[in-house]
# Entry
Amino acid sequence: MAELMNPDTWYIADAMPPELKTKAHVVLITSPKRSTYKELEKRGARMLHMPPWSLEELQDCRSKLGLPVSEAFVKKCFEYGGGVARPSLLQSGGAAAAFDEDVDRLLGQLGRAVDTTSVSQVRAALADVAAQDRGPEASHRVIHIMTDGSYSVRQLVFASRWVAERFMAKAAVEDEQGLVSLVNGSTGTFRGLMHEAWMHRTLPKGGEFTIAPVKLTGGTMKLVREADCTLKLPPCKEAVFEEVVELAGGRCEEGVYYKPASARFPLVDSLLHVGGVVNLFQMTVDLNKPVDFAALEGLLGDLGLTSQQEARLIFVVPEDIYPNFELTMKTDGSRQKQASPTAPALGSAPAAVPELGPAPALVTRPKLCIMRAPRAQTGGGGGGVSSGVACAHLGSGGCGKGHVEEESAAPPKKRRKRAG
# Structure
């Protein structure tokens, strides 16, 4: 074609190797299949990566195109399968039965994809990102490509938290040693999902955790790490919730490890009410995290906690991050104060910061905790023996109701509630 010899032409090839004898600008759009793009790559083509769709993008597309797909269905598909447009924007109908059938069909497809993906395949993909191109088609439902703002850096992540946990449950049976190696050796964005999924397996098993309270003093709002003590968590049941209102008004049962259905749930990744204390867990592999007390007080209010009920917000971090992990406390005026791993010298002059008003009378601020998560190990991925936790709270120091012992609970219970 004469147009291909025109340097002002833009030649777009869709999922097939383009004609290379051309003077046009060549744009190849393809899935990560190297046989399709390798010749263009050899010629020095610039490789850009399209990340999965965000939930907001999927909902915007559904709305603007007037697709006969419910908002709830798009959200459910995103929670299970990640930001993939085709399954998220195709729905059989609006009836409740059709909704459940479509979601079950998606779960079946994802489950089969996970079942045919091995630890060795995931490890090979992480070691050489191009290895994912050579993997089975099913692996692309399990592992997704993420990128940075330049779209030139390619990182691999699990499609969703559900996929990560399903893969981990399967691998724990088929290749436990390989799974442990994968959890302990993962890095970057992939590490975050592995860490969270592993801790969702570990915390419900209970165990002993070493905790070092970090005293949050009034007035100057200084954060000081104190001496270690021991926290015991019991084995517990497991349950899934859609909205925090489901746990309000005393419905957050003792001895149940609650996990939100959506990984996008704000502030916390799980909750455990035990020994009269509501423990809020947030898993992270970051070196520091901000703490928004206003948002936390709102969450405690939604849970219906009174000023007499104790709560902890526990940041669960890998043991290699724990020594240098810092909490950043947000205050009015966007000023921040860090909870460093090293306590300041006694008698040092307090920093000049704005004085905060008292916390609302009906809702107390939770204690802040930094948990040192144990390294993954074989043998069932059990509890937190000799794991470390650092706590921060208002007023006097000490562990308070931190010492908890209970008998083992009944087998785990799970439920999937239809949204909409």
User: Anything to note?
Assistant: The chain has three domains: 2-43, 68-186, 206-330+364-375. Residues 68-186 form one domain. The chain has twelve helices and 17 strands. The longest helix spans residues 96-115.
